[in-house]
Task: inverse folding
């Protein structure tokens, strides 16, 4: 069996189209995961027990169940409750919520890493609650957790192929479809691997630079 | 702001007045700070048991005593950084951790605490500047967002204060680029920018290299000489205590072992505990 380079390269444009969808899902999912993760982290610190306990339970639940199950759940049950949307958006929501449970832990560690003296200084100045968060605590907590957040973006990128289970055709789905006509799976999946690598390697490099920049 | 406390000029210095015995906390001319049978526990350990004392308006009081005697706890309770387990604390005629509800005294709500706490400023041993903000921003953050000053007004005030502490050339520097002494001077300016009636100084030179102590103490001497802010000072710098304070309170095991004017306490202590403590502290240098 020989590796058909000509065929492989001829399919690159189509694979790139799949890659574009995979990257888009990752970026949108990451934005959601970072925003929602911060919300979870803050809700877990709520003075109201119902809120903090409830958030904790939800986060634990989502973390302990497989992403694939959650995707199926969203894809097949949401429309029954009048929430009709594309498979792509459903996938982004699934990725975002799932990874938000991880990023919320990252934020939590970052927030706890801010020295007590900062809270005390903010109290001594009587800064309003929201101001303490937006101008004192988060600006110190977030830079140090940027590398950890970046790593989760890369993890998410590698989980996007799961979305093919709910009919989102990303890079992997594209290759599978092409393969069902040409049966040249070796070439297609090799190039799928290479394309994933082409994105995640520079991304890892970026994260390492973040690590160097923000320490720890 | 509290209804009648907004005037920027403080009442004339009254000196160490005898403890007022007025029943009504709201009477003006009463003490600036009053502890009444204050109790503080950390778990089983009782730090303060029914501690009572008054600090008059404009008075400068130095709290001395061995570590663990409760001095810092007193400042932290005033700053509401520690919960009060019993008794009442009054600041400028208002209860700090309590409020009146009809005839009854109930635990103060957030809004009341904020209002009273605004009269108090604190400088910490570890400076606690906000490292993500430049020097001037550190100073104006609270005046803008708590007092509601415009950015221009706050910056004017901030520049004046930073000039007073000798840091006019560091307005745009980040705290991490400053020496400990400079950071502490910024912290003093930051506390003063809120125009507090009471300033709490918690071992403000203890974290500094010896050669930087003087610059901070000089700034504080300036503040003491040019304002009539009430000050509660916890320090091991006895010369400084002697220079600026009208009263020294010697604490031991959460109780006032002895108090009086600094000359009396330092040169002629009546209590053995005070003598032993002063001996140990002054021997050190």
Result:
């Amino acid at each position: 069996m020989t590796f058909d380079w000509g065929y492989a390269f001829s399919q690159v444009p189509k694979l790139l189209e799949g890659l574009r969808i995979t990257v888009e899902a990752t970026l949108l999912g990451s934005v959601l995961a970072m925003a929602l993760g911060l919300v979870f982290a803050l809700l877990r610190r709520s003075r109201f027990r119902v809120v903090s306990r409830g958030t904790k339970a939800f986060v634990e639940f989502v973390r302990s169940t497989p992403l694939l199950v959650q995707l199926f759940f969203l894809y097949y049950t949401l429309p029954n409750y009048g929430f009709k949307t594309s498979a792509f958006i459903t996938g982004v929501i699934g990725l975002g919520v799932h990874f938000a449970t991880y990023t919320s832990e990252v934020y939590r560690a970052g927030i706890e890493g801010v020295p007590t003296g900062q809270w005390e200084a903010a109290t001594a100045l009587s800064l309003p609650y929201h101001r303490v968060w937006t101008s004192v605590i988060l600006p110190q907590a977030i830079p140090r957790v940027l590398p950890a957040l970046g790593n989760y973006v890369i993890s998410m990128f590698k989980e996007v192929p799961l979305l093919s289970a709910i009919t989102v055709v990303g890079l992997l789905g594209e290759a599978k479809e092409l393969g069902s006509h040409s049966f040249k799976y070796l070439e297609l999946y090799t190039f799928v691997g290479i394309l994933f690598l082409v994105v995640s390697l520079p991304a890892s490099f970026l994260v390492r630079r973040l690590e160097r920049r923000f320490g720890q | 702001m509290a209804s009648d406390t907004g005037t920027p000029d403080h009442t004339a210095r009254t000196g160490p007045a005898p403890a007022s015995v007025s029943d009504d906390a709201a009477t003006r001319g009463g003490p600036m700070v009053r502890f009444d049978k204050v109790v503080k526990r950390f778990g089983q350990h009782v730090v303060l048991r029914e501690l009572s004392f008054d600090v008059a308006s404009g008075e400068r009081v130095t709290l001395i005593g061995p570590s663990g005697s409760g001095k810092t706890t007193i400042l932290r309770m005033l700053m509401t950084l520690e919960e009060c387990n019993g008794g009442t604390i009054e600041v400028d005629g208002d209860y700090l951790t309590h409020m009146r509800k009809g005839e009854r005294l109930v635990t103060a709500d957030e809004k009341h605490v904020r209002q009273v706490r605004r009269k108090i400023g604190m400088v910490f041993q570890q400076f606690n500047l906000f490292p993500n903000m430049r020097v001037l921003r550190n100073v104006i953050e609270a005046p803008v967002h708590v007092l509601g000053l415009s950015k221009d007004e706050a910056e004017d005030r901030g520049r004046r204060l930073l000039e007073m502490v000798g840091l006019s050339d560091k307005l745009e520097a980040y705290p991490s680029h400053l020496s400990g002494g400079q950071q502490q001077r910024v912290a003093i300016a930051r506390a003063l920018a809120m125009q507090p009636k009471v300033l709490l100084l918690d071992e403000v030179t203890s974290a500094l290299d010896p050669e930087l102590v003087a610059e901070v103490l000089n700034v504080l001497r300036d503040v003491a000489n040019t304002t009539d802010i009430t000050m509660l000072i916890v320090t091991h710098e006895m010369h400084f205590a002697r220079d600026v304070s009208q009263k020294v309170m010697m604490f031991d095991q959460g109780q006032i072992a002895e108090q009086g004017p600094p000359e009396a306490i330092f040169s002629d202590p009546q209590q053995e505990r005070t003598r032993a403590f002063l001996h140990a502290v002054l021997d050190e240098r």
Summary: The mean pLDDT of chain B is 88. The two ends of chain B are 45 Å apart (CA to CA). Residues 16 and 126 of chain B are 30 Å apart (CA to CA).
